[in-house]
Amino acid sequence: MATEMPGEAGARDARTDAVIRQLQTLGAEMADLARRFGAAHDIDHSAARALLVLVAAAREGRDVTAGSIGRELGLSSASVTALIDRLVASGHLRREPDPRDRRRVLVRLEPSAAALGPAYFGPLATDMADRLTAYDEHDLDVVQRFLATALEALVAHRERDAAARG
C-alpha cells in the first residue's frame, strides 16, 4: 500500500491508491498539455483558463462577464480586468454591452480564439474518442459518473483551500 500523506483519512486499498495515482499522473499530463498550448499561442496559464471558461460558456449558451471569470478563476477584479485587457489587445476576446441590460458588459470569444482549441486539441479528442469505442454503454456511464465524482472532489478541495486562505 502507498504511503499516506499527512491528513489522509484512514487506509485505502491498493486499487483505490492506483486510481488516485493515475488521476495525479493524468492531472500532471493535462497541466503540461495546457502549458504547451499556452506557449504555442503566447497565452499564460490564467489566460488559457479564461479562454476555457468562455468556450464552455459558449457551448452551454451562457453569458460571461468579467465577474464570472474572476469567480471561476479565483482572481481579483483588478487581475481579471488586466487579464481581459491583454486578451482583448491580443485579439482573443471582445467586450460588448449586454443587449438585455446595457449596464452589464459581456466578454465574448473572437472567432480566431474559438478556433485555437479545436485546432490544437482536436487530434487528442479524436484519439480519445477512438479509444472509448472499446467501452460499452454501461462502462461509459461508470466512467462518466467517476469523472463527475472526481471533479466534485477537486472543486470541493479548491473551495476549502480558498476558504482557508480567506
Automatic annotation (TrEMBL):
<feature type="domain" description="HTH marR-type">
    <location>
        <begin position="16"/>
        <end position="152"/>
    </location>
</feature>
<dbReference type="InterPro" id="IPR036390">
    <property type="entry name" value="WH_DNA-bd_sf"/>
</dbReference>
<dbReference type="InterPro" id="IPR036388">
    <property type="entry name" value="WH-like_DNA-bd_sf"/>
</dbReference>
<dbReference type="GO" id="GO:0003677">
    <property type="term" value="F:DNA binding"/>
</dbReference>
<keyword id="KW-0238">DNA-binding</keyword>
<dbReference type="InterPro" id="IPR000835">
    <property type="entry name" value="HTH_MarR-typ"/>
</dbReference>
<dbReference type="Pfam" id="PF12802">
    <property type="entry name" value="MarR_2"/>
</dbReference>
<dbReference type="GO" id="GO:0006950">
    <property type="term" value="P:response to stress"/>
</dbReference>
<dbReference type="InterPro" id="IPR039422">
    <property type="entry name" value="MarR/SlyA-like"/>
</dbReference>
<protein>
    <submittedName>
        <fullName>DNA-binding MarR family transcriptional regulator</fullName>
    </submittedName>
</protein>
<dbReference type="GO" id="GO:0003700">
    <property type="term" value="F:DNA-binding transcription factor activity"/>
</dbReference>
